[in-house]
Every structure is written in structure tokens, then in C-alpha cells.
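Response to reviewer comment R2.3. The reviewers asked that we include at least one raw input/output pair. We reproduce the pair for Spermidine synthase here without editing.
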Amino acid sequence: MNSVPELPTDRRLSLILLFATTLFTSASLMFVLQPLFGKILLPLLGGSPAVWNTCMVFYQSILFLGYLYAHTLSTRLSASQQILVHASIILLSVLALPVGLPEQVTPPTEGNPTWWLLSTLGLAIGLPFFVLSTTAPLIQKWFAQIGHHSSHDPYFLYAASNTGSLLALLSYPFLLEPNIGLAAQQTDWSMGYALLGVLIAACAAMLWRNRQAAATVTAASADTLPWLTQLHWLALALVPSSLLLGLTNFISTDIASVPLLWIIPLTVYLLSFIIVFSKWNDAIHPWMVRIQPIFLIPFIAYAFINPADLPYWAYLILHVIAFFLAIMVCHGELAKRRPPTQYLTRFYLIMSFAGMLGGMFNTFVAPFIFNGIYEYPIMIVAALLLRPGLPLALNRRLLWQLLPPILLLSVGLGLYAGVGNLLDYFDAIAISLMLLTCAVFFLRKQPLGFALSAGVIIFLSLGVHSLSSHTLYQERTFFGVLAVRESTLTDEQGQAETYHELFHGTTKHGAQRLPAALSTIPLTYYSRPGPMGQLFKAYDAVDQNWHIGIVGLGAGALACYAKPQQSWTLYEIDPLVVEIASNPLYFTYLSQCNKTAQMRIGDARLSLVQEPDHSFDLLVMDAFSSDAVPTHLLTEEAIKLYFQKLKPNGILAFHITNRHLALKKVLSIQAEHLHLAALLEEFTAPDNMPLVVATDWVAMAKQAQTLEPLQTGLGGWQKMPLYFDMRPWTDDFTNIVGIWK
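Raw output as returned:
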């Protein structure tokens, strides 16, 4: 029997540092390129979430192709052949530097730009991103073949890759974006990519020197790896990927649409990989498995059954901790089941494929089958199903685990069908569900019964809260979740009056009273006592024939300021908003006040480019009342475009009500920089006026005398405060962190 000679082992720390630095650099470049190229595309395609979703699918698909390439290369070719092929790919990718849009590319003005966007991404960054995608599995595979004493288990290097991703993710909004313009970012990124090429070459040199030793390491047949094991890897990677996107959507829809909050779940996600692929996982993983069901009790109680009146950050902490525990259990199981090095690239290939599937499910499937962010609680249950101990064979023990959730569901649906008004028993139902949650804890060692019972409790809780919100209509698009709700207003005599409200996630976008005598009164941010009412009243004598453009439709309240001789053009990016505002079952502002208004659907900046110059007397930018701000509508180039479309004495009005960002700072700096007159009103709502809310507005004009009627009126319009601590925003430079309140 021939024995394989024992390979010499190398204990040099420098080899670990070289390969770890290469992985760190590659991951950093990948996580900087994504927001960088997103900013390049922003002025061209606008801030539509559909654009971001398409980009994410592109990135995940290229990542999968990169892992497939690394798997094929390392299992089919010798070490020297791998080096030659990969060197050729890297040299070819240099032709795409510096990263940027191809010359003379413009998106289609009609139709869906998805395929144009995908082809543009492929031409502009496809090859460099593909090279970055190959680095993690390929470099680890090479390290496994260089004869180092730790080559038998190179998975610890994955922590270096995820550390690079994490630092790049945090540094972009807080360090790179506020201090470096877009053009400089493109140059610096290209230099970093060249450095990565040098590091990969050094790693290849180490492999070349050990290519004869590497040749003795032969890959085992893929048939020897059970398919059930590979499917288990797939599930353990897919659920956290979907849970990440689901939580991010849930935060912005049901907690608070705060800019940069999406960073927190992604940071936790990357941190979990760093921990589980480190030497600490064996000690930490059992504790994560024990703690998860304990924390699940307060999580379900306060996040789903009976949400207390807590600030949004308390809800955020609750959900993030639950998310962290869920993915630590899944990723911990994944790391615990990592295969020998001959299956390393297959292991990573399945992980990347699972990530792509999770992204596609949340991006393309969930919005079409759910009218809310229901994929999030579904994946919470799926994560509980993946706890260790789930029997995979159908047997009597498994069937007994189905009994508790079936009984819970039967009783819940029976109460729903048999009790007249469930809301009369809301407190009793909430207490019962909390007690059941505590009881479910004792099923924690039976993953199927535990997960499905928790899922039934969450499902019943969501149903009860849906009833209590008096939701008349709810639908979901790429742009978010829209809901029309019926609320009650009680006057001093105790008389109740119902009215309708439009919500986009947690942000109110308008309201209307239903009695005929009150239904044409603009409410909320657009009330007659407020800034917009003051503006239309101040110009009442001269605006008979104005051409007015409104960006952002909402419920359509502004339409009730229209006069017969005026022409109005309304711009709205979400077709569903137009459908809701035009439906008299929900809102009648448009049908009662302005039936002749023209409607333009699409990103406002792109739509305005098509309008004739000097055609508007008034442009109202009402796209900023949500806390997720489309920054491309506030840049120097955007404001120049607005004034290009306004007449010489035209007025530009911005709605800047925002809970988290001081948008007046951006507009004040723009006004100073562009030598524009600007006034601000920070309106405080009177206590005795129902449905009139506090709101902030800015008015701009080329000449100060154009705005004089506002200053001499009864409102609180004042000159803008001056700021000197930030550069003007441009398509090349924006700084969200610099305007936090």
C-alpha cells in the first residue's frame, strides 16, 4: 500500500497576514463599490427603491457566479493553471478602471429600465466586481494548499473577509462620503483595486512555490457529499439572508424610516460571520442556542402581542437582539458543519447561492404575494425550525410536536369566527397570548413544535392588530407599504367623527375629513393656517393663471388650493399613490377640487427634465416628509434644474418636515451658494385645530422681492439661518451624517 508522504508545515505568521490582508482588502473594496456606484446612478435613475433592489440582485448574482468560478477553477485545474487563468481575468478587468458609467449612456425615457440597468452595471463594474467575488473562496482554497500548519482549516480567514466588509460598510457613510467627493472616490477605489491585484499576485506566488505539494491534495468526488447535508447548508444560509432584508424592510416600514438605520442589521449580520468562523464559536454557540428561546418570550410579547408605547430605538434594540440570536444560531450551525478543505469552495458556493435566493425572494417574490412585510415573521419561524435537534425523518415523535401548534391555531381561528367583536376582548386576548408564549418556552427542545407554536402566536397577534388599526386598504409595491386607515375624531361635546388617513409605513402622508362641508379643507402639513395656506393666500391676487407643479401627491390635499384658470401638474413616483388618491372610496380631494390636473408618474427629477423651460410659476417639492430622503432632489444640480423650469419670478417651495434630519441646513447652504432668496417657516400647530400639525417649509426665489408677500403676511416666514460647516450638496457630494438633528 502506497502512503502519501507527510507534507512539510510552515509556521510563518507572515503567510497568514498576507492571505488575511488580501481577503480584507477585497471585501472592503466590494462593500465600498456598492454605495459608490449607487451614488453614480442616483441622478440618472432617481431614488426609486426598485433601482436599489435591482442593483442588489445584480450584486448577489455576480457573487454567486464568482463563487461558482472559484469552485470550478480550484476543482478542475492544477495550481499553475489556476494562477494563469485568474491572472488573465484580473488583467482583463483592469480595462473597466476607473469605475464609472460608460460614455453617452442614458436610461430609456419610457418603459421599465431594469434590463438597461443590469446591462449598464455589467459593462461598468461587472468584471471588477466578479474578481472581488472570487477572492474569498479562491484565496482560502489556495491557503489550504500552501503547506502552512493551519492550512487544514482555513475558514478562520473568512473572519478577515467579513471584518473588511464590516469596516467598509461603517466607514462609507461616516468617513468616506462626508469627506471625499464622488470623482475622488472613483480614483481612490481604482488604486485600491490595483493594490488588491498585487496582493493576489503575492498569494499566487506562494501557491506556485508549493504547487507540487498542492498537487498531492486531490479533491474528493462530489458524489461522496450527501445531498441532505448540502440542503442543510442552503437552509442555514438562506434564512439569515432573507431575515436580514426582511428586518431592514420591517424597520423602515413599521418602526421608523430613519436614514442609515439599514446599516445596523447588516452590521450585525457581518459580525455574526466574524464570530462563528473564529476560534470562539465552539464556546459561544451553545450559549446562543440556550439564550434564544429565553429572549423570544419578551420579544414576541412586546414586538407582536402588545407593543407598548416605546420610542422607536427601544423597538429597534428588541428586534436587532432577536435577529442577532437567530442568525448566530443559524450561522453557528453552519460553521459547525463546515466540511474538510476539499469541499471548501462547494461550501461557499452553496452559501452564495442561498444568499442570492434569499435576496430574490424578498425583492421579487414577497412584494407580489404579501401586502405587508410578512416575510419577516415567516423567516423568524424558519430560523427557529433550524435550531439543532430537528428530526429529519417522519416519525411518531415528530407528529406529536405538531399537536400544540394545531390546537393553538384551531382555538384562535374558532374565537375569530365565533366572537362578535374581538376588540372588546383585546386585553384578555393579549394576556392569553403572553401566557401561551411563556408556555411555548417549555417546547424549546422540540424545534418543530417550538417554532410552529411561536409562529401561530405571531400570526394571531398580527391578525388582532390588523383589526384594531381599522385598515380599509393595504397594498405593497417596490416603494413600500401603503395603507388607508379610518380614525375617529372626538370634539369637545363628545361627538365622534370618522376621517381617513394615508400612511406610507409609519409616516402619515395626508388625511381627510368625511363630512361634505369639511371634505375640501386641506389638513395635516397642508392646512390653511400653515405655511402652504399662507403662501397661496399671500399670492391670491396674482396667481389666477399660474402653472403649478407639485412633486409628491400624498392624499391630494394641495389640490384644494387650485383655481379654475390655473393649470396643475402632479408628479408622483408610485402609481399606487395615484390610484389611492383618485379613489373616492378613500379620498376625494382630487375629484372634488382639481379634476383637470395632469398626472406624471416617475421620478420627479427625470420627469422635470422633459418639461419646457420657464413654464412654471410655482414648484412645490413635497418628497421630503418621509424620513427616507431622496438626496438627489436636494443637490445643486437639482435646484438649478428647478429654476430652469421656473419663470424668472417663479417660486420654489420645499416641504422639509423631518424627525431626524435638519434639511433646512442643506437648503440654506444651497441658497447662499447659488445666490437665491430663501425664507423658512417652522410652523407650530394651534391646540384647538384638529388634524392641523406642526410642519416646516422653505420658499426660494431668484429675487428677494418675489418673496416679500410672505414676509408681510400673518405667518412666521423668516430668513434662513446661515451655516458654514458643510459643503453644498452636489451630485458628486452629499453628507447625511452632517445634518442629523
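The domain at 10-102+114-217 is CATH 1.20.1250.20 (Growth Hormone; Chain: A;). The first helix runs from residue 13 to 45. Further pairs are available on request from the corresponding author.
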